[in-house]
C-alpha cells in the first residue's frame, strides 16, 4: 500500500480532534479503564496538569490484570507510563509515525505552547494512510 505524498505531510494536530481524556492522579486502575471505555480511547493522561507526567494505556491495564493487581484499589500511577514521547502540534504525520516506529510505542502526546492538546495513536496514523490510499 502506498500512501499519497500529501498524507504524511499533514500536521499531526489535524487528526487529534477529540478532547484529551484524563483521570485524576489519585484514580485507580479501574477508574482509568472505565474512563477509556466511556471516552472510547486507548490511552488517557493522568492528572490535570497542562503537561501531564504520566499516560496510561490499554496495554498498561492488561499488564496489571495479568499481574493479578486489584484494579479497584491499585493506583493508576503504579502502572502508568512516565517516559512520555511528545511532538509539536505542527509536526507532520510522517515525523510522528517515524518517532513511534523508532521507539516501538503506540501513543505520542501532542503539544502546543507547552500544553497537551491531543494524544495520537498508531491506529490514528493508520487511518490517515489508509484514507489517502483509497
List the helices and strands and how they pair.
Layout: H1 5-9, E1 22-23, H2 29-39, E2 43-46, E3 54-57, H3 58-66, E4 86-88, H4 93-103, E5 107-112, E6 115-121, H5 122-133
Parallel strand pairs: 1-2, 4-5
Antiparallel strand pairs: 2-3, 5-6
What are the salient characteristics of this protein?
single chain, 134 residues, alpha/beta, CBS-domain, three-stranded mixed sheet, globular
Tell me about this structure.
By secondary structure, the chain is α/β, with parallel strands linked by helices. The chain has a single domain, classed as CBS-domain (Roll). Helices cover 36% and strands 19% of the residues. It is built from 5 helices and 6 strands. It has helices spanning 5-9, 29-39, 58-66, 93-103, 122-133, and strands spanning 22-23, 43-46, 54-57, 86-88, 107-112, 115-121. It has a 3-stranded mixed sheet with strand order 1-2-3. It has a 3-stranded mixed sheet with strand order 4-5-6. The longest helix has 12 residues, at 122-133. The protein is globular.
